Amino acid sequence: MNLDQPRGRGVARILIDEERLQARIREMAAELDAHYGKDEPLLVGVLNGAVTFMTDLMRAMSIHVVIDFMAVSSYGASTKSSGVVRILKDLGEEIEGRRLLVVEDIVDSGLTLQYLLDVLGRRNPKDIRVVALLKKVKAEAASVQVDQVGFTIPDEFVVGYGLDYAGRYRNLPYVAVLDPATLNETEP
Ligand code: 5GP
């Protein structure tokens, strides 16, 4: 792991390396295969952060799946949730009567996910399951439905493996914590 590459500049430490990520994703995929059996779930990826996780997860699954994406407003260049969620891109697929698997990168306050679940639930899918790669240890996050969590992490701002800071760091193959100096440099 070379932190001197441009993409790794500003990283303070690696929280979850590539090997651990991929091993856990294989386990999660096997659980999902067993859970859905002969059914074909519709994987709903939450853009942009869940792209990396979703593509690895679906390739580790051996059952048939259909995929679609939604985009909701995120934090912008800030590291704190505004609590305001907006749909920026909606699904192309009809979901009534279908089995949905919502694929999230990270659950922090749980506000984004709660909003999505409310929106999707009103469209009468057969059922909704939620898989999140990361979940922060937080009292608020505990109340939202998450059926499968890859890793529970401390309440720190993380980047990498799909997660950004001001648009950067999504292409790191690991999950990392930024150097506080990096946050101070670019935060508005
Ligand atoms: P929540 O609504 O649960 O507070 O936040 C959900 C969204 O905020 C995530 O899908 C992600 O886009 C963003 N987010 C939450 N925590 C972090 C974090 O530690 N790092 C990054 N890069 N994004 C985060």
What does this structure look like?
The chain contains four helices and nine strands, in the order βαβαβββαββββα. By secondary structure, the protein is α/β, with parallel strands linked by helices. It has a single domain (18-153), classed as Rossmann fold (3-Layer(aba) Sandwich), CATH 3.40.50.2020. The strands form two sheets. The protein has a six-stranded mixed sheet, sandwiched between helices. Helix 1 (18-36) crosses helix 2 (51-60). The longest helix has 19 residues, at 18-36. It is globular. The model has no long low-confidence stretch (mean pLDDT 90). It binds guanosine-5'-monophosphate (5GP). The site of guanosine-5'-monophosphate (5GP) has 21 residues, from strand 5, helix 3 and strand 8.
Summed up:
The chain is α/β, with parallel strands linked by helices.
What's the CATH class, please?
Alpha Beta
Largest sheet: 6 strands, mixed
CA gyration radius, whole angstroms = 16 Å
Please trace the helix and strand order, writing H or E for each element.
Answer: EHEHEEEHEEEEH
Distance between the termini: 30 Å
**Number of strand segments:** 9
* CATH fold-level topology: Rossmann fold
Count of spatially separate domains: 1
> What oligomeric state do these chains adopt?
single chain
Bound molecules: guanosine-5'-monophosphate
Separate helix tally: 4
Spatial strand arrangement across the major sheet: 4-3-2-5-6-7
CATH architecture: 3-Layer(aba) Sandwich
The shape, in one word, is globular
Structural class by helix and strand composition: alpha/beta
Mean pLDDT: 90
